[in-house]
Amino acid sequence: MPGFLPRYLLKSCLSLCLLAGCSPRHETPPASPYMASSSKSSSQRASPQVFHFTDITHQAKLRFKHNNGAFGLRLMPETMGSGAAFIDYDNDGYQDMFFVNSRDWTDAEIRDYQAGAWLSSEYDYHVSRQRDSNGARVLTKWVPPRPAHRRTPGALYHNNGNGTFTDVTKGSGLDIEMFGMGAAAGDYDNDGRCDLYVTAWGRNYLFRNHGQGQFKEVARQAGVRGSGWSSGAAFFDYDKDGKLDLFVCRYVQWSPRGDVFERSAASARVMHGLFPIRATPAACIAIEATAPLPTFRSAPASRAVFLPGRRQDLRQSRSKL
C-alpha cells in the first residue's frame, strides 16, 4: 500500500540508525571517488566506473539446456528455474560448473494430479473436453498430450583452463534425474575435495567427491535427504568448529494432488497454483564428524516465514529437514 512502511522494515531501519549512531564519528567525512565538491567544474568531477559484460556462453561451449517438465498442465514447480554452482571438483585451480536440472513428470505424478480435489471451474473445463466412445462426458481430469520421455540429468562441466568447458557428466555419479532447484558446493568432510549438495522437490541430494571426477550420493547416510520442497542451500561454519555446516531453504508444501486449477473467465487462460500457500520452515544443520562418514544433526536456528499478506515470526527452535 503506498505510504505504508511495514513494521519489520521500520524495525530494520531503526536498527540501522542505532548502529550508525554507535559508530565512531569523524570530523571530516572520507571523500568518495564518486562525489565531488560543488565548487569543481563538471569536467573535474569523477565519473563512476562502468562495467560491460559480454555473453560468451557459446564460445565457452556450455550447451546445458534446462527442462522444467512443462507440457501443458502448468504445475507449480514448472515455474521455477534451476540453480548452478561453481565447484573446482578436481583441484586444478580452475572453477568448474554444475548446472541443476529438472525432469519430465512421471506417470505416477500425473495420476496423483488427476486424483486431486475438483473445483467447479476445473470440473467444467476438464469434463467439457472429454467424451467417451458413446459421447458421454468423462469424469477424469483432462491431461494434454505428453511428449516422449526425455532424460535430463544435471550437468557437470570441466573448466579446460582456456575459456572453454567440457561436459563430463556421464559416469561422474551426478548423472541422475531429479526435479532440481538449487546447489551448494563445499568440502563438508574436510578431505580436501569439494562436495556438492543439490536441493529439489521430493528430496535432496548430497554428492560426496571421491576424486578422479567421481561422486557418490550419500544424503540418506548423512541425514540430509529430507522431503518436501527445498529451494536453495549454503554451506557455512556457523559454530566455528572447523567443519562446514549446512543451511537448507525450504519452500511451500506442494504435491500434484494439491495443485489447484483456476480458469480466468476474463482472459480465458488456464492457470495452476497452490491455494492457500503453506510455508515450510528452513533448516539449519550442523555437521558431526562420525566414522566412516560425517553426518549432520539439526541445530538451533532463528527463522522467519513469509506468507501472502503477513509475516510470521518463529521463535528459536530446532529445525528438521
Structure description:
With 321 residues, the chain is mainly β. It has helices at 7-22, 107-114, 120-127, 219-222, and strands at residues 84-87, 96-99, 155-159, 165-167, 179-186, 195-202, 205-211, 214-217, 228-236, 245-250, 260-264, 269-273, 283-288, 295-298, 300-307, 310-318. Strands 5, 6, 7, 8, 9, 10, 13 and 14 form an 8-stranded antiparallel beta sheet that branches. Strands 1-2-3-4 form a 4-stranded antiparallel beta sheet, with no helix packed on it. Strands 11-12 form a two-stranded antiparallel sheet. A hairpin with a 6-residue loop joins strand 13 (283-288) and strand 14 (295-298). The longest helix has 16 residues, at 7-22.
Concise description?
11% of the residues lie in helices and 30% in strands.
Order of helices and strands: HEEHHEEEEEEHEEEEEEEE
Low-confidence sequence ranges? 1-38, 263-277, 300-321
Could you tell me how far the N terminus lies from the C terminus, measured between alpha carbons in angstroms? 35 Å
Residue fraction in strands = 25-35%
Oligomeric state of the chains present here: single chain
Q: Structural class, from helix and strand content? A: mainly beta
Q: Helical segment tally?
A: 4
Key phrases:
321 residues; 4-stranded antiparallel β-sheet; 30% strand; globular; disordered N terminus; disordered C terminus
Write the layout of secondary structure elements.
Blueprint: H1 7-22, E1 84-87, E2 96-99, H2 107-114, H3 120-127, E3 155-159, E4 165-167, E5 179-186, E6 195-202, E7 205-211, E8 214-217, H4 219-222, E9 228-236, E10 245-250, E11 260-264, E12 269-273, E13 283-288, E14 295-298, E15 300-307, E16 310-318
Antiparallel strand pairs: 1-2, 2-3, 3-4, 5-6, 6-7, 6-9, 7-8, 9-10, 10-13, 11-12, 13-14, 15-16
